[in-house]
Amino acid sequence: MVQTLRLDAIEDLPRTPASDVKKLGWRGVMKTIGRIGKVVVTNHNEPEAVILSAGEYDAILQALHEAGSRHESALDELRQRFDERLASLQSVDAGDRLRSLMRAPVRLGNKVKAGTGH
Predict the structure, then answer these.
(1) Measured distance CA(90)–CA(39) in Å, rounded
(2) How high is the mean pLDDT in each 10-residue block of the chain (118 residues)?
(3) Cβ atoms within 10 Å of 37's Cβ, excluding its own
(4) What's the rounded Cα separation, in Å, for the pair 55 and 37?
(5) Domain ranges within the chain, ordered by starting residue
(6) Is 58 helix (H, G, I), strand (E, B) or coil?
(7) Backbone dihedral region of 45: left (phi > 0), alpha (psi from -120 to 50 degrees) or beta?
(8) SS3 readout for 66-113
(9) Span 10-89: which CATH code?
(10) What share of the chain is helix, strand, coil (3-state, %, to 5)?
């Protein structure tokens, strides 16, 4: 069963003191997890651990996988564009094309052309 991922700040998660975990036992903690899906275990009011249900954990893994896939897809597209440009520079006539461009007069159409350098 895949759950929808809802990311809450640790401050917004339900809390239970470590002493309650000891007192109520694992079964008591799991009842809370079953209702809410996650709980922060605190020690002297400071967060020490977050316990997640298996569904919450799976949702996090799925979201990470999807984010990684989107990143890889964008990277693959960039890589392909770079390879295409590099291939054009490695073609047999690349030098001739560059020299032709450098020899041709620049037509600015009465506009100033500025670069990033001086």
Answers:
(1) 58
(2) 64 88 86 87 93 89 83 84 87 88 79 66
(3) 20
(4) 8
(5) 10-89
(6) helix
(7) left
(8) HHHHHHHHHHHHHHHHHHHHHHHHCCCCHHHHHHHHHHCCCCCCCCCC
(9) 3.40.1620.10
(10) 60, 15, 30
